[in-house]
Description:
The chain has two domains: 1-137 and 288-322, 3-Layer(aba) Sandwich (Isopropylmalate Dehydrogenase), CATH 3.40.718.10; 147-266, Isopropylmalate Dehydrogenase. It has ten helices and twelve strands. The chain has helices spanning 17-28, 83-98, 112-119, 126-133, 162-165, 168-185, 211-225, 242-245, 256-266, 302-321, and strands at 6-9, 34-38, 49-51, 62-66, 104-107, 140-145, 148-152, 192-196, 229-234, 250-253, 272-276, 282-285. It starts with 5 loop residues before the first strand and ends with a helix.
Amino acid sequence: MTQPPLAITCGDPAGIGLEVFLTAHKQIGHEIPMVLFADQKHLPDDFDVMPWSPDAPAHSGITLYQIDFSNPAVPGKVDPQNATGVIRAIEEAVRLTQEGHMAGLCTAPIHKANLQDGASFKFPGHTEFLAHLCSAQTVVMMLTCPTLSVVPLTIHIPIKDVPSAITHKLFYTTAQIIHDGLTRDFSIPNPRISVAGLNPHASEDGKIGRDDIDRIKPWIAELQAKGLSITGPHSADTMFHATARAGYDVALCMYHDQALIPIKTLDFSGGVNVTLGLSIVRTSPDHGTAFDIAGQGIADATSMIQAIRTADRMIKARRDAN
Length: 322
């Protein structure tokens, strides 16, 4: 049975999303069938575009699901009147994926403030919107590259709020979604989760606080009793060298920078954002709209290429599991 295509949403057309997709498409070609959800007027005139339909034949150019935007896109210039088109591209791609016409979803970057200003967007970000569309109560952001996968337990909050934000429910649910997601979407039968301590040296036997001893360690023991392969809390400063990384499949970190600094150091251009816990496959490049370089032809497409390839691997893993 032929695999349905991968849906690619355009993101903000004034950013680098379409640029890096076009570069990725040129490199990947028909190796992975794709449909771009975008407005044809935002694409270069010399690109061969064919409208998408469920029975569309193979095509050497871009297969397009037309989304009508209000205005042309000016690189680097935010346009609130185009916000509705950005949202509709996501909604249509999710709908068609849920209906089985698309195999999964790879999203180019959006500009949240523009959506909130131009279309009364009520969600903190892309991931939360996708969770809403998929009726998922809890989802997990995982950043992955060939040498490391990380999950930040808390994300965009001040450091002073991190300890109180780390609850038993959040920790337990996140670990379970990681376990289930890596099993289903990455074909890892018993994924090894390594937990970073909250405090330096994982609280060093109580000399540097007791968060890791009194809370995180017992929570890990609960999950171990359920059969999860999870260890820690470990001292975060010794978790990310090559030998340590060989001992686990994903690092569960306590806060944003604890997770993102090591992966961006190891592979700044090639990291991929994966949403675990959705009913559909979703990936995205690990970068923003980059308005400051949009339209200059210098945007690095590595992360978009890897995001497309990662989505394809996840789709095949789900298919093989069934």
